Amino acid sequence: MDISADxxxxxxxxxxxxxxxxxxxxLETGGDMEAAVKYLRERGIAKATLKSHRETxxxxxxxxxxxxxxxxxxxxxxxxxxxxxxxxxxxxLGKDLCMQIAASNPKYISRDNIPxxxxxxxxxxxxxxxxxxxxxxxxxxxxxxxxxxxxxSEVCLMEQPFIKDTDKSIEDVIKLAISKxxxxxxxxxxxxxxxxxx
Length: 198
Hints:
- The protein is built from eight helices and five strands, in the order αααββααααββαβ.
- With 198 residues, the protein is an alpha+beta fold.
- Strands 1-2-5 form a three-stranded antiparallel β-sheet. A two-stranded antiparallel sheet has the order 3-4.
- The longest helix is centred in the N-terminal third of the chain and has 19 residues, at 33-51.
- The model has no long low-confidence stretch (mean pLDDT 86).
């Protein structure tokens, strides 16, 4: 099948992947745009996993103040080189993540950052809720685990749906950026301020 430059450009615009990767994805999927996007996402995740152990000692502090000046966010987004940190695309990623945090109010970066006592407490609450709903005792742990998955997607930044494209999680967005920049990228920390909220 003939893959036109317009098709490659369209795929590049929607995924941010390199031109050659886009062309290869379209060739591999017979020109099917949706399948090519999926192919690139899967490939990006594989690449990102390989890079995830590399040290990230460069980066930026990005900030966002929501309209009305009632909510503000600061985030430390790190990468491997100053070259990537200075790009407009990396800065845009930082700003997008700040807006995500302002809108979705996560408490932790990932589930690994949740203290064990918080997890135990949440599991307990979910078990008690299921018990009050009349669920059988043998199902309580399974129900609690299911509800814990929803809890993670609410309180963990990496598991939240991206506000600009809810088909992707923040983890997907970071992994696509890793694939595009060819460097490990990590959210090191963030803080969200809201007027009147401790």
